[in-house]
Amino acid sequence: MNRIAQGLTLVLLGAAALTSTVPTNLYLNWVKAGFGPFLIAAGVVMVLLGVLIIVAELRGESHALDEEDAVPEDAVTTASSDGSAPRSELDHATAEYGSGGGDGHGHDHSVAPRVAWLLLLPVIAVFVIAPPALGSYTVESTGGSSGPPPRDERAPSRFTDELSQAGPADVVPLDIQQFVMRAWIDEERELSGREVELTGFAVPAQDGDDWYLARLQMACCAADAVVNKILITDHPAPEADTWWTVRGTWVEPEGDLYDVSEHEITTTSVEEVTNPPDPYE
After folding, report:
1. Alpha helices for 71-170 (secondary structure H)
2. pTM: predicted TM-score of the whole model, two decimal places
3. DSSP states of 249-279
4. Alpha carbon of 243 to those of 41, 191, 198, 200, 201: distances in Å?
């Protein structure tokens, strides 16, 4: 990989970052929305650096060719005025011991190793087979939901939903993470008897009959995503990774909420979502 190829790789990587953020929101499959401006800035910097490398290399080659054209023909085969070896002998020595800034070991350090071509693989992946957002496979492979948060006497202050402000007959839209948080730590059990609306993707249960409505919650990127899911037993299992909006009521467990391993809902309506939202919460 020569310098021009290195510059081209930078340009392509920068273009991949820009095309996944500026014209589309493809980057939301991998990172949170707040990282969009940083990806745009990084893409611009990489494109500019790549262009500068390519331009500098082309100018350097052009300058070298001009210098070669300026050398008189009789100076190639005759000795120099200070008694040095003829140019033909110098050319032979250069070919034997390496050129282009070589160090006498017979190879050129100005050229990157061939393994550097592997840098093009992420570019191909983004432009050709951009990886989708995490889905049902991730939920199934993790084996379960994230565990309950530590007990806290001030737990009610951690709720970010509108359940407490809504009227008793209102249908309250909740994130699945908000529902799971309530179902695990709300000692007042305000979810009891309240109809809520949840949106997520379908994940088949191991028994083949039941299924989960799931979403993934990430702190910064898909690599740290954790699973939040709700068991549904009273509606036929849909196809995996299809998106659904479910209305229903919490199946209130007996005993300590912290001992619950799966949160369940009794559905009143199930509707497929044709335009899914941000894949993560």
Report:
1. 74-77, 87-97, 120-127, 136-142
2. 0.66
3. EE-PPSS-GGG-SSEEEEEEEEEE-SS---S
4. 33, 23, 11, 6, 4
Query: Per-residue pLDDT tens for 158-194?
Result: 788 888 888 888 999 999 999 998 888 888 889 999 9
Three-class SS state of 140: helix
pLDDT score of 13 more than 80: yes
CA-wise closest residue to 138 among 246, 222, 221: 222
Give backbone dihedrals phi and psi of 278, rounded to 5 degrees, phi first. -50, 130
Q: How far apart are CA 244 and CA 242, in angstroms?
A: 7
Q: Are 48 and 18 in contact (CB under 8 A)?
A: no
Dihedral of CA atoms 170, 146, 34, 247 in degrees, nearest 10, equals: -20
Whose structure tokens read 């020595």? Answer: 93
Q: What is the pLDDT of residues 244-273, one digit of tens each?
A: 999 999 999 888 887 888 899 999 999 999
Arithmetic mean of pLDDT, 118-142: 73
DSSP codes joined into one string, 51-98: HHHHHHHHHHHHHHHHHHHHS-THHHHS--TTSPPPHHHHHHHHHHH-
Rg (C-alpha) for the chain, rounded Å, is 31
Cα–Cα dist 211/207, whole Å = 9
pLDDT of residue 99: 46
Measured in whole angstroms, the distance separating CA 128 from the mean position of its chain's CA atoms is 15
Q: Is 218 helix (H, G, I), strand (E, B) or coil?
A: coil
Cα–Cα distance between 205 and 220 in angstroms, integer?
28
